[in-house]
Specification:
Low-confidence stretches: 156-172
Strand order of the largest sheet: 3-2-1-4-5
Oligomer: single chain
Mean pLDDT: 84
Number of strands: 5
CATH class: Alpha Beta
Strand content: 5-15%
Largest sheet: 5 strands, parallel
Shape: globular
Helix content: 25-40%
CATH architecture: 3-Layer(aba) Sandwich
Family: Belongs to the universal stress protein A family.
Protein name: Universal stress protein
Structural class: alpha/beta
InterPro entries: Rossmann-like_a/b/a_fold, Universal_stress_UspA, UspA
CATH topology: Rossmann fold
Organism: Solicola gregarius
């Protein structure tokens, strides 16, 4: 058995989901759009050994095959998005866990998608970034239109003034 290294997508909307609130907001937007357009959604989670959940077959001293890590990643993805997906029963949704770097996987998958959707940033990086590295790479290199979904609220918007700035302000 081999594990997936590419996205299996033939049209429709492709979205990267890493489990963050940003990706949940992007998925909600994507599902709403797919419902209106009558198209399918492919939800992808990239994984590597250091980010994959522990497979059911794991035990001390035993390294499960990569397909077990893929299955664990896909199961976690399905659990993470189940509530959002259930709000759109008419949308055909496929869940895929693909081994590799998120930006590379999404850009490669964009060759066969009608549109790629990402959140502004994911679990990594620095709080307050307007656009994360994966989102930026997708915008720059995708082979289809890309939508970056920014959620509403303070958490998604960087502060106008960083706390470090207070320390640099001259004393009165």
């Amino acid at each position: 058995m081999t594990h997936a290294k590419t996205v299996d997508c033939s049209g429709g909307l492709l979205i990267g989901h890493d489990g963050s609130e940003f990706s949940n907001a992007a998925l909600s937007w994507t599902l709403d759009l797919a419902d209106r357009l009558g198209t399918s959604v492919t939800v992808v989670r990239a994984w590597v050994l250091t980010t994959a959940p522990r497979p059911k077959t794991w035990s001390p001293g035993y390294m499960p095959p990569l397909v077990d890590f893929e299955e664990a990643s896909r199961d976690r993805l399905q659990a993470d998005v189940a509530d959002l997906v259930s709000e759109h029963p008419d949308v055909e949704v496929s869940h895929q866990a693909v081994h590799g770097r998120p930006a590379s996987i999404l850009v490669e998958g964009s060759e066969r998608a009608d549109m790629l959707v990402v959140g502004p940033r994911g679990l990594g990086g620095f709080r307050g970034l307007v656009l994360g590295s994966v989102s930026e790479q997708c915008v720059r290199h995708a082979k289809c239109p890309v939508v970056v979904v920014h959620g509403r609220g303070e958490q998604e918007t960087p502060p106008a003034r960083l706390s470090l700035d207070d320390n640099l302000t001259p004393d009165d």
